[in-house]
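Dissemination and training. As part of the outreach component of the grant, students in the summer workshop were shown how a complex can be specified as a set of sequence lines and then modelled as a single object. The example used during the hands-on session is reproduced here so that future cohorts can follow it. Participants entered these lines:
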Amino acid sequence: MEVEPRLTLADCLRHHLRLTGTHVGCEHGVCGACTVIVDGAAVRACLMLAVQAEGAEVVTVEGLSNDADLTPLQKSFRKHHALQCGFCTPGMITTAHALLSEEPDCDAARVREVLSGNLCRCTGYIPIVEAVLDARAAYGAKARASDRGGERA
Amino acid sequence: MKLPPFEYACPTTLPEAIQLLSERDGDAKPIAGGQSLVPMLAFRLAQPTLLVDLRKLADLRGIKISQKGVTLGAMVRWREIEDDERLDAAHPLLKAAVAHIAHYQIRNRGTVGGSLAHADPAAEMPAIAMTCDAEIAVVGKSGARVIQAADFFQGALTTALTADEIIVEVRLPAWPAGRRWGFEEFARRRGDFAMAAAALFYDQSADGKARNAHVGVAGVADRPLRLPSAEDVLSGRAVDQATIAEAEAAASAAVDPQDDIHASAAYRRALVGTMVERALKRAAARAQQ
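and obtained this result:
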């Protein structure tokens, strides 16, 4: 496809490819709702030009689900009530997926630090952190008995 | 909040990139990670007619560590610094500062050269460059030159770079084993720009006295600053409670911040002293490890 240079990756995904799972909140890199995974790394799609993604692999929240069943990460978000209005959820899911893919053994402090770049205005952070921690096993985390998700880092 | 229109080029060689920039006589801008420039475009604080993407320039990549010190290519992303275990010993101050930069997703894209060229007065990398006497190697139409960090930052979002120059790398002098250091930053929310930050180090003589003290601060002026008066307090003294209190007072007295929407001048002046105090306490505690 060919696009104008000024088109952000976020708008390209939403308006040109109709992948509206990627949400656009602040449009200047503060809220994290537009997080997508580019060549394995979570990035803000509103701070990247679509032309800069030429040749790159882009995974959106649509790419993290399937029709057959909920994924372990989705199941964990449901189990822990880790969403309310749902606006921030695509960014939370893509960020958490990138984190857990690389650091399946991350602790609650690391999850909180990483999710600090994603704003949730329903203030659902405690269940979101619990959901991410609970999903670690599905990404190959070693079992840990002591780590309780809701603890303050 | 949509970006203004511009043309886009993605050259594969440095000379080509410089040629593209020089042809527009200041109306073209290089784009590296875009984590500062794209918001600037969204807010219409920058309206270049051409963006020159540096992502295909291999010359700007890589972290090199030698006896001379640490050399960071301009396109090195924060993430690469976080992941480079060699830097734990080769430049722990740099690594500690990078942990404070924005958020996870932004550290996956943002670059060393982009932060230096953007020159936000509260940003971490410019403060590290100032504190460590970094050399910034640039190349432009009239050739290559090396700019000392102290000459590079000229004001808020203003540097010594000419319109056709591109940062190639930044060189941080060698970091001796046993150096005492601290980095402290205060922001209301994690990932925000610093309301004040301190980056400092000193070497310790066999008799327990500090020498070669470097005290840098960010967020309290139109550019990162070195504080010679605080460095003088430390030089030749044991870094104990009394010395730290004197250095804190010297740091607060040395800065002249402005009132703004985030904090009053008086608050920032007190805060920068506290950052210096905490960083020195960390540095002194490290000495006993």
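The helical segments of chain A are 9-16, 72-79, 89-102, 108-115, 125-134. Students were then asked to discuss how this feature might be tested experimentally.
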